Amino acid sequence: MKNTSFVVVCIFAVAVSSVVFAAEAYKMEYDNPNIPIEITAGQEFVLRLDSNPTTGYGWKLADGIDEDVAKFVSSKYRQYEVKLVGSGGSEYWTFEATGSGTTAIKMQYVRSWEENEPPAEEKVFTVNVKG
User: Fold this and answer.
1) Is residue 108 part of a domain?
2) pTM of the model
3) Which domain holds residue 34?
């Protein structure tokens, strides 16, 4: 009986993990600011930005965005599979399309302690949301 319960719990855990992973994978991912993002209100989308925190640099949202069109949800960093010292990864910035319209999302690659320095890199994504 204990083995059966354990198997049921394991199957349930795998099923829940699969649903969560599928929901994450379903979000549209963008990494090219030269291609406008076309999305429908209510959907989430992700900006994938190459990053290497070992250099002190990280991405930040440079200007406010029109939250009537899109709003920031979360960000996270994932290291590349290569586990070499100093290797980089990607930052994943999740946004939600909140209503019809167009907004720009301006991202800057900066060091937090260099407030008066220009960003090492800047990317501006155009987001077009349809109701």
Assistant:
1) yes
2) 0.77
3) 27-130
Instruction: Answer yes or no: are the C-beta atoms of 128 and 36 closer than 8 Å.
Output: yes
Q: Would 12 be classed as within a structural domain?
A: no
CA distances from 117 to 1, 28, 77, 79, 108 (A): 65, 32, 23, 26, 11
- pLDDT, tens digit (0-9, with 9 covering 90-100), for 36-81: 999 999 999 999 999 999 999 999 999 889 999 999 999 999 998 8
Q: What's the structural domain count of the chain?
A: 1
What CATH number is associated with residue 69?
Answer: 2.60.40.2020
What's the pLDDT tens digit per position in 6-26? 433 334 443 433 333 334 446
**Which single residue is written with the structure tokens 């406008």?**
36
Residue 79, beta-bridge partner list: 89
